[in-house]
Specification:
Blueprint (H helix, E strand, L loop, with lengths): L1 E10 L2 E7 L4 E5 L6 H13 L8 H4 L6 E10 L2 E10 L5 E4 L2 E3 L2 H4 L5 E4 L11 H15 L1 H23 L10 H37 L6 E6 L7 H7 L1 H7 L10 E6 L2 E2 H4 L2 H23 L4 E5 L7 H10 L5 E5 L3 H5 L6 E6 L2 E5 L1
Parallel strand pairs: 3-13, 3-14, 8-12, 12-13
Antiparallel strand pairs: 1-2, 1-4, 4-5, 5-6, 6-7, 9-10, 10-11, 14-15
Helix pairs in contact: 4-5, 5-6, 6-7, 6-10
Bound molecules: adenosine-5'-triphosphate and magnesium ion.
């Protein structure tokens, strides 16, 4: 699939914007704070309903305005589609595909599969487990419609169970209701665990080869799903930990405590990897996602590279650009120097200044 055009209205520092893109590499360049990231954010938001920066809708709407609009024309299996997103200050956003409103975000996810890559993502291996769970959740939600359903239910029940644990301090007679929440937690939590295991198994089949190539056969990578609990003993473990949970008024067992380990040549690089090793593994992970989308959704994703090229050495940069040849890509950067000096292939270039395109080739 590919994105043909983007229109913005009262979106961050864009009062009005209209852009037509190429199917290959689209370069957005300009000085700091001119609006480059805002464009890739709009694409990400339209595709996933969320800002990659975690911004709220009302922060995205242009100052002193009440609404913002995003319109994307995209081609999928030779058919053109139109996606409209309408952000409102104090209400939920409206989304429509081909002018038909969409009610659940799960109906949107996967329509325009996107992969976002920023310097922050290079730290996924060094950062704490919550970043890696976030990665699992975002990627899986795009690939598997039902995952988001189970995860949302799980998180809601987890919150209700935790609230009840707090309430029990004052109303101990409610303790019998805990069992109901335990059963619900296990029901949805087991699905979350099942999907995550399948995803990591699939990822492992893809990442090994990519990582070998990226490291010139010097490194063997293996991802391991460190699930906090197996689904078949989830309920038993929950019962065992009940007194601890009551004491600390929080749920100590479940997939909300999961992690993934990255084993390179037998070593856990979360703790013992060099910075370069951690960054290379993060790059392998991103490149694997492209392949994963192709295999699971039978579609090519759109790749958004925000300020990431300047963070990679020239070998990795060349490898990255080589691997994404048949993928529509949006790259942001401040200058064109390295593209010109290294003859990197670019189909379309946009120079951005103060929320306007001032030059395009
Ligand atoms: N709701 C908003 N309304 C108007 N302007 C906004 C809003 N939110 C952010 N901005 C402006 O958008 C600009 C930042 O844009 P953006 O993050 O896209 O910059 P950038 O070109 O990616 O810069 P850098 O190279 O530093 O990453 C800032 O000038 C900021 O003040
Ligand atoms: Mg930026």
């Amino acid at each position: 699939m590919f994105i043909k055009s983007l229109e913005l209205k009262n979106y961050r520092n864009y009062e009005q914007l209209s852009m037509n893109f190429a199917g290959g590499t689209n370069l957005l360049y300009g000085d700091n704070a001119q609006g480059k990231t805002n464009i890739v954010e709009a694409i990400y938001l339209a595709a996933t309903t969320k800002s990659h920066r975690g911004s709220k809708d009302r922060e995205i709407i242009q100052f002193h305005h009440d609404e913002a609009h995003i319109r994307i024309h995209y081609e999928k299996q030779d058919i053109m589609h139109q996606l409209d997103m309408h952000l409102k200050k104090n209400r939920v956003k409206g989304v429509a595909i081909d002018r038909i409103p969409i009610r659940k975000s799960s109906d949107l996810l996967g329509q325009i599969p996107v992969i976002f890559f920023s310097p922050e993502d290079l730290k996924i291996i060094k950062n704490g487990p919550s970043e890696r769970r976030k990665f699992l959740d975002i990627e899986l939600s795009q690939l598997e419609r039902l995952y988001l359903y189970h995860l949302t239910k799980y998180n809601k029940i987890l919150m209700q169970r935790n609230n009840l644990l707090k309430q029990l301090k004052f109303q101990p007679n409610l303790v019998d209701t805990l069992e109901f929440w335990d059963l619900q937690l296990v029901k949805y939590g087991s699905e979350v665990i099942r999907y995550r295991r399948k995803f990591i198994d699939h990822l492992n089949m893809i990442i090994k080869q990519i990582h070998r190539k990226l490291t010139g056969n010097r490194e063997e990578i293996q991802l391991e799903y460190e699930n906090n609990v197996e689904y078949d003993i989830f309920l038993t473990e929950l019962n065992k930990k009940r007194s601890i949970d009551l004491k600390y008024t929080t749920t100590s067992i479940g997939p909300h405590r999961d992690d993934i380990s990255f084993i390179v040549n037998g070593i856990d690089i979360r703790k013992f990897g060099s910075q370069g090793q951690q960054r290379t593994a993060a790059l392998s992970l991103k490149l694997s996602q492209i392949q994963l989308v192709k295999e699971v959704l039978h579609d090519t994703p759109v790749l958004l590279l925000d300020d990431v090229l300047s963070e990679l050495d020239s070998n990795r940069k060349i490898y990255l650009l080589e691997s994404i040849k048949d993928t529509q890509t949006f790259i942001t950067c401040t200058g064109l120097d390295e593209f010109i000096s290294q003859h990197l292939p670019v189909q379309r270039m946009f120079q951005i200044k103060e929320g306007k395109i001032i030059k395009q080739n």
